[in-house]
Design brief:
The complex is a heterodimer of chains A (about 375) and B (about 375). By secondary structure, chain A is mostly helical. Chain A has helices at about 5-25, 30-50, 60-80, 85-105, 115-120, 140-170, 170-175, 180-205, 205-225, 225-250, 255-275, 280-305, 315-320, 325-335, 350-365, 370-375, 375-380; strands spanning about 130-135, 135-140, 340-345, 345-350. In chain A, helix 1 (about 5-25) packs parallel to helix 6, helix 2 packs antiparallel against helix 9 (about 205-225) and helix 8 (about 180-205) packs across helix 9. Chain A starts with a helix and ends in a 6-residue tail after the last helix. The chains are: A mainly alpha (about 375), B mainly alpha (about 375). Chains A and B meet through helix 2, helix 4, helix 5, helix 9 and helix 11 of A and helix 3, helix 4, helix 5, helix 10 and helix 12 of B.
């Protein structure tokens, strides 16, 4: 394997390993915990290094993951005192821990070959240089092995506890009633997130870990509300952006982790704009249509209430309901197209269909009973959903 | 380092003044962020400012800090509006939106920074000081800028004080009163972004959010009044800046940003523990005191139950008969004597008329507690 393929493999496996806990973090509204963890593993790393004096030691990962879990516990402790809200608690804990890490590094700059920049940003380009050797035989880059092992463990845990995770994510009450401790699920997920963050940050840096966890899951969440589909989609998005980002980085001769994040960002932007039914454009169109439909209904009700020809003149209507001309014309056209009204000599009158429809709508508004609405749903977008 | 250095050493004086002003403005505006439950917005914005700095540099090619900060301001504002767009138009929640903007913008910023580093422009060195901040690079013009921004935000805050307050605590009410809540909301966000951008050079992208949060979270513990909270937060912030600078200047190899953040964290811890109203310590003391009081009253009521079976309420009873009641100790008996509710003679106790009265009305909530 040459270095190019290895880098892409590491990036892709890391993306997949991050995407799985990321989906649950996004669904549990704990996305920012990943940010907190990714920063506060720093003191754990430094202390682990002081003890082992070996940057490649697996103890480092354990120490760092441990300080990630301490972050989660601290946040919860602070939150439990009720003195501040959860987000403030997160915002207080991780900068403090990160500062401790930075100071520890700075004070011992001579014997720590840790660089804060490297921790935050990582460097994929150098990942293939750290080889995994047994008896002098080269088994590929160490980073690839570490993150692959973590991906496998994550997948095994996911398969084993899928049902429990799913229930505790969507219905905490039900899950504790069924006897799955939400606390264990919570800390289990946090531990996986911590370990993944630690293993991944080495290759891609603390900030990209956050991006790899949150962005694919968020993009997938805009496309589906099915948990399994969401996971598959977010893994695809993550892996795709990782490989795409690598080539962008080669093309621009810039940081690989930066370009992977940028590709992820563009991907999210596209999905945010164009996702069917949940994207920005779809939402705006729907809101606009609903506004028109409400206007139409108001208009029909007005016609229904007034019999005199004076009240039903087109010009008068525009004034009376206080719509601007464009809007009034749009509503008129819509109503005419649906055979709800007829216009003769600038006087609007309801057709039989329009009258029936209005009566039905009135019934619904007055009684507010859901049965009334069932057959109206076919004619009218407004009442759907 | 001597104390007098603060007044004689030009660089140190500038830095100290700068960090103090920065702490004050961050504390002031941070109070609004904390109360609006937007604590982590600061974190997202500070990261989102990075690509702005890089783009401003790419366009102008000069390292004028004012231009770079303008770029940071613009990209921070774009970040804020995108966060608001995501939250209001999709079903993604605030935390996801913040995390997204934070990491995506920062990653893009890094891409640009590494791209700039490859450019043949000798000017590019030092852009990465915005990552971790270097208070040491503060010069007088930076401090002047900080003071101007602080003054402007102070004036705006005083002008819109009523509106800000209303929006913070009851947005719907503000809307019904006809205030343009979108405008006020945008104004607060704008000033929060401004404070963050100003602080980037000193404490850096990563730690900026703590500058915003910590003084405000500490101040929140001491008061329930917005005005006092804002003033306190500004004071805490300023002191964090001064102490942090002093500590980091007194030792070699200590970067200022992290030290300031840790000093602010100490303020937070002290406030959490020792604030009289909400602090953990006094809460615990109150809890214990209430529990004791409850035990005391339970004992009194138990005695009352015994006493009222007899005609003479002050008839002595053996202390022994209280033994099957769990809640009493020698100490509580002493307290009851102290309050003149009972008297003790040898192994016997007898209830006073005052004690009888109190016990009879113990569960009568209509009588105000004396």
């Amino acid at each position: 394997m040459n270095a190019m393929v290895e880098i892409q493999l590491i990036a892709a496996v890391t993306a997949a390993a991050c995407a799985i806990p990321g989906v649950f973090l996004v669904l549990r509204k704990m996305a920012l915990i990943s940010d907190a963890i990714s920063h506060s593993i720093l003191p754990g790393l430094v202390i682990g290094f002081f003890i082992t004096h070996d940057l490649a030691s697996p103890w480092l990962i354990i120490f760092a993951a441990f300080s990630g879990i301490i972050t989660v516990i601290l946040v919860e402790l602070i939150q439990k005192t009720g003195l501040v809200k959860e987000d403030t608690a997160i915002g207080l804990v991780f900068p403090a821990l990160f500062s401790i890490g930075v100071i520890l590094i700075a004070k011992n700059a001579n014997d720590v070959h840790l660089d804060v920049d490297a921790v935050l940003l990582g460097d994929l380009a150098f990942a293939p240089f750290d080889r995994f050797l047994i008896n002098g035989v080269d088994y590929g880059p160490k980073g690839l092995w570490i993150i692959s092992v973590i991906l496998v463990i994550t997948l095994l845990l996911l398969v084993a506890f899928y049902k429990e995770l799913k229930i505790s994510t969507f219905d905490i009450g039900l899950s504790s009633a069924l006897g799955f401790s939400p606390v264990i699920m919570h800390y289990g997920l946090m531990s996986v997130a911590s370990v993944t963050t630690v293993a991944a940050f080495d290759a891609v840096g603390a900030i990209l870990v956050v991006a790899l966890m949150i962005a694919p899951a968020a993009a997938a969440y805009l496309l589906t509300t099915h948990l399994k589909k969401m996971m598959v989609l977010s893994i695809i998005f993550g892996v795709g952006s990782a490989i795409g980002g690598y080539w962008v980085a080669r093309w621009l001769d810039a940081s690989i982790s930066g370009s992977i994040t940028t590709v992820l960002g563009l991907l999210f932007l596209m999905i945010y704009l164009f996702a069917p039914s949940k994207g920005l454009i779809a939402v705006l169109l729907r809101q606009n249509r609903q506004r028109t439909e409400v206007s139409l209904l108001t208009f029909l009700l007005h016609l229904n209430n007034h019999d005199s020809i004076e009240e039903r003149r087109v010009a008068h209507l525009q004034e009376h309901i206080n719509w601007r001309k464009v809007r009034a014309n749009a509503v008129l056209k819509l109503a005419e197209k649906n055979n709800m009204i007829t216009i003769q000599d600038q006087v609007v009158s309801l057709t039989t269909k329009g009258r029936q429809f209005t009566e039905k709508a009135l019934d619904y508004i007055i009684t507010n009973e859901d049965e009334q609405i069932e057959d109206m749903k076919d004619d009218f977008f407004l009442f759907r959903g | 380092m001597e104390l007098t250095d603060f007044f004689t050493d030009y660089t140190l004086r500038t830095i100290t003044l700068g960090t103090a002003v920065l702490g004050a403005i961050c504390g002031m505006l941070g109070s609004f962020a904390v109360l609006r439950k937007q604590s982590l917005l600061g974190d997202a914005i500070s990261h989102a400012a990075l690509p702005g700095i890089a783009i401003a540099f790419l366009i102008t090619g000069a390292k004028d800090s004012n231009v770079l900060l303008l770029g940071a301001l613009v990209s921070g504002l774009i970040g804020v509006f995108w966060i608001k767009g995501i939250v209001s138009k999709t079903h993604l929640k605030t935390d996801t939106a913040l995390g997204l903007i934070l990491s995506l913008f920062f990653g893009f910023g890094m891409l640009l920074l590494t791209f700039i580093q490859k450019q043949p422009n000798a000017n590019q060195a030092g852009l990465d000081k915005y990552l971790f901040g270097q208070a040491a690079t503060l010069v007088e013009s930076d401090v002047t800028l900080m003071i101007i921004v602080t003054a402007i935000s102070l004036v705006v805050m005083l002008l819109f004080w009523k509106e800000f307050k209303l929006l913070l605590f009851d947005k719907n009410y503000a809307m019904t009163l006809g205030f343009n809540t979108k405008f006020i909301d945008g104004l607060i966000s704008f000033f929060i972004v401004l404070a963050i951008v100003i602080g980037l050079q000193t404490v850096g992208v990563v730690l900026m959010s703590a500058m915003l949060l910590a003084p405000a979270a500490a101040a929140r513990q001491w008061t329930n009044s917005l005005g006092i909270m804002v003033i306190l937060a500004a004071i805490f912030g300023a002191f964090s800046g001064v102490f942090g600078t002093a500590i980091s200047a007194s030792q070699s190899n200590l970067s200022t940003g992290p030290v300031i953040v840790l000093v602010a964290a100490v303020f937070v811890v002290i406030s959490f523990v020792f604030s009289p109203g909400r602090g953990i310590l006094f809460k615990q003391i109150r809890l214990i005191r209430n529990r004791r009081d409850l035990e005391l009253k339970k004992t009194l009521y138990f005695m009352y139950d015994i006493v009222r079976k007899h005609e003479d309420i002050s008839r002595p009873h053996a202390i022994k008969i209280l033994n099957n009641f769990q809640g009493f100790t020698k100490g509580t008996l002493g307290k009851l004597v102290e309050k003149d509710w009972i008297t003790i003679a040898g192994d016997n106790w007898s209830m006073t008329s005052e004690g009888f009265e109190t016990a009879a009305n113990l569960y009568n909530t209509n009588i105000p507690e004396s």
